[in-house]
Specification:
Length: 126
Amino acid sequence: MSEKLAGENAGVVFVLGVAAILGWATISFLAPDDWKIKYCARYFVSFDNVHVNDRPTSCDWSHAPLGDKACHYEKIVTTERWDTSKEGKPIYSYDDGKTWNIGTPEAGTKLPTENVFVSWQRRDDP
């Protein structure tokens, strides 16, 4: 009887695992670009460490004057990693840990940590 319960539990665990993976993929790739939860899921960082600037509306069709503005905004995602060097000094990287520089993090920052910044850059349409 315990073997039967173990088999049933394994099936439930498998289904829950697949559902969790599908939920993560849906949030991290299909959520709107201005939702913080998208970057929390994609970069595995806490909600407090994601900083999303408001997307400008000046290129939107419905923004005055009405009509095509021949422009759009592209998102720019930057990651900032903070850690401690072998000497115990705070270091940071903006290129996924390829190069590190000595610096001073914001007050109250616990090391190691990672921040994600989302900004917008205007691009003119051809």
